[in-house]
Specification:
By secondary structure, the protein is mainly alpha-helical. It has a two-stranded antiparallel sheet. Strand 1 and strand 2 form a beta hairpin.
Length: 118
């Protein structure tokens, strides 16, 4: 009987800790589940393989095209990723502000590096 009592105490204690942990997670800042490269792969690479553009060849993410379109900055890329432009829909709701910034930073670094192959 005493063993049964201590077993119940253990499970009560454990359930209390688990509940406290779940409550803490609900209010904890959201972790960065993915970085810019992963977000790009999930949401952008379908049309922008290696910085190209399968829909409109001239509208690439290559440095020369970004400069030609006056979009050669992280801020300009983030604005396009969030709101869209031309035939491209915006992804602001999907990516959120942080995700948009991460994608833009990664795209800008790739453009500066000439979109090296992974």
């Amino acid at each position: 009987m005493a063993a049964m009592q201590s077993g119940r105490g253990f499970w009560r204690s454990l359930s209390g800790w688990l509940l406290a942990g779940l409550v803490a997670l609900m209010f904890w800042p959201a972790p960065a589940w993915a970085d810019g490269a992963q977000l790009f792969e999930l949401h952008c690479a379908g049309c922008h393989v290696n910085g190209g553009n399968i829909i409109r060849r001239g509208k690439t993410l290559k440095l020369a095209a970004l400069e030609r379109e006056n979009r050669a900055s992280e801020e300009a890329i983030a604005a396009i990723a969030a709101a869209g432009v031309g035939q491209m829909s915006g992804y602001g709701e999907v990516l959120g502000e942080q995700g948009t910034a991460e994608v833009a930073a990664w795209v800008w670094q790739q453009a500066l590096a000439g979109w090296p192959k992974a």
